[in-house]
User: Fold this.
Amino acid sequence: MRQSHSQANPFMMMMNPEAILQAVERSERLSGLQRRICRPLDKPLIPKVSQSDLDAYDNDIDADIDMCLEDDSEV
Assistant:
């Protein structure tokens, strides 16, 4: 009875991690899962942008903000 109680209590399972690893290795359900290795962070998807492109973008944003501020001050 004590063994079934310890299996249901996750805190008791932390006290004996080797038993958990053995149970995982013996599990038929886990061994039946399809396995594949996914490494989505191996290759960054962020494109490299030159500093001149960043400066041009910043200048466009600043110009838009300045234009909005000028429109607000005229009202």
Summary: The chain has one domain: 2-34+43-74.
